[in-house]
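Write out this protein's structure.
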Amino acid sequence: MPFIVYIFTLTAFALGLAEFVPIGLTDVMAQSLGVNVEQAGGAVTLYALGATVAAPVLTALTAGWSRKRAMLMTVLVFCAGSLLAALASSLAMLLIARFIAGMGHGLFLALASSTAARLVGPKKAGSAVAVVFGGFTIAMAIGVPISTYLGGMSYWRPVLGAIAVFGALGLLGLLLGMKEPAKAQGQVGDESVGQALKAILHPALLAAALVTVLGYAGSFTAYTYIAPLLAEVTQVSVATVGVFMLIYGVLAAIGNVLGGKLTDRLGVDRASAIMVGGIAVSALGMWCFAQSVVAMGILVASLGMFTFGAVPALQARLIGVAQQHAPHAHGVAAGLNIAGFNSGIALGSWLGGVTFSTVGVAYMGVTGAVISVLGLVLLFVQMAKSRGVGYRAAVGVSQ
């Protein structure tokens, strides 16, 4: 595996921290800034919205750029936004900074996954992409729980500052170690940009991406405010909340591996249905058994497993749809799935905030389960119209 792919992994680690650390810090950030928890939860929403906008749109608009130039600019934007967030003196400043950082997030992941695949060639493309996203799961399993613990002691600003430092290390690695893939030289022009922009609005791709949006919205409706749910309803300590985040992260990493194997075995449609259905059941269980520490440990673990187990299935499914309907815009298809993931997080965190302020934190799971079931129903409707696309074929496209 080329060394630069591991630089992508380091940067993805920083992105994983940036996306998920604030989930465990909503309480302390709210207290520090003098706002309520729902308002502090906007830091999660705005970051995800930034990634949603950037992933497909900026991927298309930068199609004529060299990959190195585009990735350097992307990570620079992420670092600037992350540093500004750490220094934010008001909620408005924090939200603006998080949106800027999120824009760097969305474009980087779309570029890094396609570039890594191109660098190693078709036979190892899947492994290269897995290594890149391995940084994300490492952040979930190790970085987020540690950061949540440190931030829970009211030191949230240094934690966000450290995210900018990790991003800067990735930027330095890209600057010194990345060379342009041969295939990227002169490969794209105005025509490919036009094709990519058209693909963003293709009905079949948007419908497939909507399944991702609803599935993840259900998951993150339940998960975004997990810290106040555990503290107020389950009644665990701040330190114990970090343990729950660790459990979630470890099972997320395991789920990502299991999801890929299940997709190989069952195909994209059935694997996607199992994972989205698992999200719905886990979220509903968090409403039914919120007062039990043991049950919540199991449910938080299962939510992490199903949420990240859905990544390979939904990604393969969307790229397979692109192969049928927009074969010249695979990068945008990958970007659409990242956009779907992040818009699901944004929608979920917003719905979580609405639920929090209207009926209370205990009902997060109900709202999350309903949204995930809507995604499952949409998936079943699409499955009824078509037999779907084989996972192996879809993976081949992304190479």
